[in-house]
Write a structure and sequence with these properties.
With 170 residues, this protein is mainly β. The strands form 5 sheets. A 6-stranded antiparallel beta sheet has the order 1-2-3-12-7-10, with no helix packed on it. Strand 2 and strand 3 form a beta hairpin. The structure holds D-sorbitol-6-phosphate and zinc ion (ZN). The site of zinc ion has 5 residues, from loops. Zinc ion binds next to loops.
Length: 170
């Protein structure tokens, strides 16, 4: 038995690993450029009994027209994943070889990420987006394809709102 608590900032109390992704760590994932180097997101992870629990905090902001987002990956092993919205407003992009889907993620929304679907989360709001991910500790993360080609669609700001647009690299 184990129990975790997420604090008011979205950090799992007693986490064992923290990842910080700054703009300079993921420039290639965006279509536009910026001169400064903001933190795009942070991940706080715990591992117990073969399960990983991780909160991601994506800060609000954009690189050009594109909203701050995670790199996105596909799991190396066949491993499903569950996302649960904690705070803020986002979109999750899900993509397989011949499928593309997007869902809103916010507090109390639960999303099943099927195995073999690449997934990326985007903060489309003006506060931090926080969500919890639960997945097998040995799932593994492959970023290569996303780094080269990305997702079929990108999420951009258009007339003050978010919109899906074709990815020019696709
Ligand atoms: C792990 C899960 C999340 C992401 C996190 C950062 O399987 O999907 O915890 O790792 O949201 O995204 P990324 O694409 O940089 O790993
Ligand atoms: Zn994942």
């Amino acid at each position: 038995m184990f129990m975790y608590e997420i604090d008011e900032n979205g950090i799992i109390k007693g986490y064992s690993k923290k990842v910080v992704r700054k703009y300079s760590d993921m420039k290639e994932f965006f279509q536009w450029k910026r001169e400064d180097n903001p933190t795009i997101y942070e991940v706080y992870e715990c591992e117990k009994k073969g399960l990983n629990f991780a909160t991601t905090i994506i800060f609000p902001g954009r690189v050009g027209k594109e909203y701050f987002m995670t790199k996105g990956h596909v799991h190396k092993k066949k491993a499903d994943e569950i996302y649960i919205g904690v705070k803020g407003k986002g979109l999750i992009l899900l993509q397989s070889k011949d499928d593309f889907l997007s869902f809103e993620i916010k507090k109390n929304i639960i999303i099943h990420v099927p195995e073999n679907y690449a997934h990326r989360t985007v903060n489309i709001g003006d506060e931090n987006l926080v969500f919890l991910a639960v997945y097998a500790s040995d799932a593994g993360h492959d970023y290569d394809f996303i780094k080269r080609k990305g997702f079929r669609k990108i999420v951009i700001e258009k007339n003050g709102k978010h919109a899906l647009a074709e990815n020019p690299k696709w």
